[in-house]
Amino acid sequence: MNYIQGNSNISHTYHIYLDSDSGKKSGNVFQFPISPTIEVQFPQRGNLYLKEFSGINNLYNVNTNNQTNSITVGATTHTTGIGGIPEIPPGNYSTLQELLDRVNTTFTGIVTFTIVPGTIKVQAEHVSNSDFTLSGPLFEKMLRFTVNEQVTSPHQSKGEVDIHRATHNVYMSVAEVANNTRDVGTASGKGNRIAKIPVSTQFGAYVVYQAVEPVQKSPVENSLLNQLNIQLFDDDGNVYEPDRFTITLALEIMVPVQTDYKNQISAMPGSYSTSKLHPIIAPAIRRFC
């Protein structure tokens, strides 16, 4: 019997309900045992996709990955957390002004940051109009300043500022899913991504997702699923760890259509060949009398 690739039927659909309270946490990965084991063996294929998700929005736009920054004036470098300069506290800063107030408190007497009137750009001005150098991920990515290069005071950000740039979406990765081209260019090189969950709620509210057609399906092939290893992260690849979350996954088992195409072809009238070689067309013969 022969299988025609790409022509398959759904034989089973498994709905997998997961609650973080029933999982085990190992580092940044949530491990969920699956019982009974789901088998996906050739010629079967599995397509896994996210149906539902719910978890609290506790994403910080300032976190341990971007809170360390510095300003250099002349030969002196002022770095957060060193020499009396406080760290910028991690948290969710709801407005640009709220964030700038904290940054100004941190770098009091060195550089003052203000919103450019009529825009959502930021201006940095040294208290004595000296040249200065900004360094660090908050200055570079969030406030969009030129970094690691001396600039003249005052200095404006290169474009509009979005302080929530890293918290617009939550991504879900499942280690048991085969890598594919959707992984290219994902935040911090996170692979095995199966879903992008938009965050449209305020900090402290619930992030809720319900799949709407067409859904993104990811391949699961040649495996015995007895555990799922799931990771959640934000747009910058920082780990998202809500206190509790629930997930509904759907796993479709695809069985290829069986077609006895050789017998069908041989039953046709006339001369046909099942050879994979291309037919050779004889050249035209010119006849002369």
Observed structural traits:
289 residues, five-stranded antiparallel beta sheet, Jelly Rolls
Could you please describe the fold and organization of this structure?
It is a single chain. With 289 residues, this protein is mainly beta. It has 2 domains: 2-59 and 167-259, Sandwich (Jelly Rolls); 70-156, no CATH class. The chain has 3 helices and 16 strands. The chain has helices at residues 96-106, 137-142, 261-266, and strands at residues 2-19, 24-26, 29-40, 45-56, 70-73, 76-79, 111-115, 122-126, 133-135, 155-156, 169-174, 193-198, 206-210, 218-220, 223-233, 245-259. The strands form 4 sheets. Strands 1, 4, 13, 14 and 16 form a 5-stranded antiparallel sheet that branches. A 5-stranded antiparallel sheet has the order 2-3-15-11-12, with no helix packed on it. Strand 2 and strand 3 (29-40) form a beta hairpin. It is elongated and about 85 Å long. It starts with a strand and ends in a 23-residue tail after the last helix. 22% of the residues are buried.
